[in-house]
Amino acid sequence: MRHLLDTRTLDRDTALRILDVAEDMSDTQSREIKKLPTLRGKTVVNLFFEDSTRTRISFEAAAKRLSADVINFAAKGSSVSKGESLKDTAQTLQAMGADAVVIRHPASGAPQTLATSGWISAGVVNAGDGTHEHPTQALLDAFTIRKRRFGAESRGRDLAGVRVVIVGDVLHSRVARSNVWLLSTLGAEVTLVAPPTLVPQNVSLWPARVLYDLDQALAEEPDAVMMLRIQLERMNAAYFPTEREYSRRWGLDARRAAALRGDSIVMHPGPMNRGLEISSEAADSPRSTVLEQVTNGVSVRMAVLYLLLAGERDDERGGDL
Q1: Are 226 and 186 in contact (CB under 8 A)?
Q2: What's the rounded Cα separation, in Å, for the pair 174 and 50?
Q3: Closest by Cα among 216, 212, 219 to 259
Q4: Do the Cβ atoms of 44 and 100 come closer than 8 Å?
């Protein structure tokens, strides 16, 4: 695996390979000593042009647990804020000897540009670009669904027949986009639920169906309900009348959560707007996987970095990645 830029072009076998390696990584994290020597001598750069706490810390923890050296590069306070271009930044990282660059950028397509420009020889991981994609979030979500559904029997399993409902601000959500493509590749049936104003224009091209009524979608007894954060910072228009009205029609409140099938799970990529898209009762219930998703994120990102940087040695021995 040379780069991880999106899930739309990720094939089923590669996705399952990442999830299965993440299972191995997860097993190591229950040991007293969690650190592995796998990436000793490698340098991973976290290149974040947007604020992030969860994703950056998760990638940092993943790299350090594989014994890689980590450089955190925040655009604020750096030369980027003085006008340095992505090309100049990339060439600086190349000169530093970066082996992998984890990039989050407000412009959709920036990781693709970095990976294909020839400015840098490092492997590139997309940690979120604009409203385009966030592939490792989708991978950790799929990992979490698979783990809850199959437990110790997860390895090698896809998500055929699993019904997932994704609810909320689909228009601005790179998490929704990455999940739709990955979950459908793994065989899941995906339903999007949102106000008409928060549904993308090209959604007819996605492998998912669209509903506008949350209660109708929940009546079909999905296996997983994924609530999306309302991204008020990306909204420059009135996409719904009031927050109270949104919560009433599309929020997962205590009543809706209690009516879910017994083994259905509730997911959220975080950070949560409690009381808006999800109630505290739903977020803190036993069916909630919010904290598991954070834990699983480290294992999945360990798997991605391993396949990016150590997988090349497997290639030389005839491996498929």
Answers
A1: no
A2: 14
A3: 219
A4: yes
What's the pLDDT at 163? 98
Question: What is the pLDDT of the chain when averaged over all its residues?
Answer: 92
Cβ proximity of 42 and 100 under 8 Å: yes
- Take residue 146 and report the two structure tokens written for it: 């698979």
Residue 178: phi and psi, rounded to 5, are -65, -40
Residues contacting residue 95 through CB under 8 Å, at least 6 positions apart: none
Rg (CA), the chain: 19
86 touches 143 (CB < 8 A): no
Q: In a 10 Å sphere around its CB, with 0-12 CB exposed, 13-18 middle and 19+ buried, how is residue 211 labelled?
A: middle
Which CATH number is associated with domain 135-289?
Answer: 3.40.50.1370
**At 49, is the secondary structure helix, strand, or coil?**
coil
CATH fold of 12-132+294-316, please?
Rossmann fold (3.40.50)
Q: Give 4's strand partners.
A: 125
CA 97 to chain centre: 27
Q: Give me the residue label for tokens 């340098």.
A: 43
* Residue 80 pLDDT exceeds 80: no
Ranges for all domains in the chain classified under CATH 3.40.50.1370: 12-132+294-316, 135-289
Query: Rounded to whole angstroms, how far apart are CA atoms 190 and 206?
Result: 10
Whether the pTM exceeds 0.90: the reply is yes
Q: Amino acid identity of 40?
A: R
Q: What are phi and psi of 63, to 5 degrees?
A: -65, -45
